[in-house]
Amino acid sequence: MIIDAMADGDPDIASVANDLFIHAPTDSTVIRWRQEVLIDALAHPQLIRDLDSIARHSAVLERRSSYATRQQAPFSQLLRSRELLSLLIGDLEALAKRVREPDNDVSSKGLKLLIATINDNFNDEYLQSLQAELQLLRFENGMVTRATLGAGNLTSDELIVESPFQGRGWRDRLHLVLGDDNRIEIAPRDQAGGETLRELRNLALSQIGTIVAHGLGTVISFFVTLHHELAWLVGAINLRSQFEQLDLPICMPEPAADGWHLGFHGLCEPTLGLRTRARPITNNLALDDSSPIVLSGANSGGKTTWLQSVALGILMMQTGLFVTADEFRATIRTNLRTFFPDDEDRELQHGRLDDELIRLAATITELQEDGLVLLNEPLTSTNEIEASEIATAVFRDLDKRGVTVIVVTHYPTLARELATSGLSLEPEILGDGVRSYRIEPSPPPKNSSAMDIYRRLGGW
After folding, report:
1. What is the mean pLDDT of the chain?
2. pTM, whole model, 2 decimals?
């Protein structure tokens, strides 16, 4: 839902956002760099949208560019590359013109570097020279080549040279170079002669065709990369707009590189707000280094929502995004995994417990030091005693590997066991049994919430 809100119907932004959420950076320097750029982009939304619009226009030529460079005949390769470059020059000019407008008072190192790169590489002098070179490649005044004649009258070292007869007709040029005695004319229906002439032309254009195709690929690659980076920023601008409409808090989180810390103030679950179009309840947690963190207690009190808000907060932080909180600080995790209840094995290949253990193993097996796993109601497919024994053994192994665990469970035995070395949290229940949906530090419960659920349903 976050990706959908960022994309706002744009598949390019959705693809970029999806890729970055899967491969979020784990280097604090990279994350802080991205945060600085994002803050700057949010202050200059129209500049970012304009630059992305230009880059997107050229990036769509990537497929046509690949087709051009695959052309076997040098003349065809040169023809297609030249036409595409002609289109791209217009976008390069638009890009250079946009970054020179007076509203581009950016302050981040990233956007300053981008603007300086565009100004330095695509100034007026360069673009005019590029236009002139492309104009020459049209060979409107014919083509002059130089070659060495070798054994068997075969040519070698073919090379296009600048015509000394610019502005003169081809009949005049032939006469000046060859004289009437050395002039060769091909009859209109001489297919063999025409084919030989095409072969000579392709030999002459072979080197220059490759160079122009390479230049085309470089320009296209620049625009594709630029669109990739800007699409993320446009997505972030779209997301902020959605959050502002819902009055959700946003802050730039503080990533910590070492140890394990988690703390926040005013954190809410953004997808709940996007889904209900209302401002969710916020929660606070004093900065804490406990592991595991165990949430237990009354059902329908906001435990799962709290877990999702923490997972999204950490993930959004590591991509360089803002977080829906007034303050948010967490340690960067090299691996982040979640485990939520799933549908049963519909093909009945496994029992419920087998299926759950297989999924749990797939979630945590590869987690190493600095990993984080968030589990919502694991091992519900067996009884409390067995679930507590299995979970305790699993979490003890994760702790040895340096993996941080945050778990929601309705088993009081498991909650008490985990709370002996970690932090215990519970939903706040008001005097009349009403849920405030706030999660507070509290000793683990002595009993399950079965009677509470029975009473809430009216009893019978």
Report:
1. 82
2. 0.78
